[in-house]
Design goal:
Blueprint: E1 2-11, E2 34-48, E3 54-68, E4 73-88, E5 94-103, E6 116-125
Antiparallel strand pairs: 1-2, 2-3, 3-4, 4-5, 5-6
């Protein structure tokens, strides 16, 4: 069975006015710094090989941030990435799972970083 999903997320955090960005504010005051706005468009395709057998998924996303710091305002800071996960049940109670993500760092805030990669492996038993 194949399923596909797509979603759009919009986040608008409530940053404290003035903190960290107001003239003469204390350096340690970070109350007004952070993500001002975030948009994310993502999609995923998942295939299930049957109950308690195996499944696999692959997906991708694009995120665009507006960020406010004590020193700069960043608008439309975009980045993208992809993710996968696979699961396999060798028995009815044991599941093996692997997941990973490849992500692009912010070229504005982290220009010295290259592609980010994460991998996770787990084994679980259900009784």
């Amino acid at each position: 069975r194949l399923t596909t999903t797509g979603q759009y997320k919009y986040r608008l955090p409530d940053l404290e006015e003035g903190g960290a960005i107001g003239e003469g504010s204390l350096f340690a005051d970070t109350a007004g710094a952070g993500v001002k706005k975030m948009h994310e468009l993502s999609g995923e395709a998942r295939y299930n090989f049957g109950k308690k057998k195996a499944d696999a998924a692959i997906g991708a996303y694009v995120r665009i941030y507006d960020i406010q710091t004590a020193y700069a305002f960043l608008d439309n800071d975009g980045r993208g990435g992809g993710r996968f996960d696979v699961g396999y049940w060798p028995t009815e109670i044991i599941r093996l799972h692997a997941a990973g993500e490849v992500a692009q760092p912010s070229q504005t805030m982290s220009a010295d970083l290259d592609t980010l990669l994460s991998l996770r492996f787990l084994m679980e038993a259900s009784f």
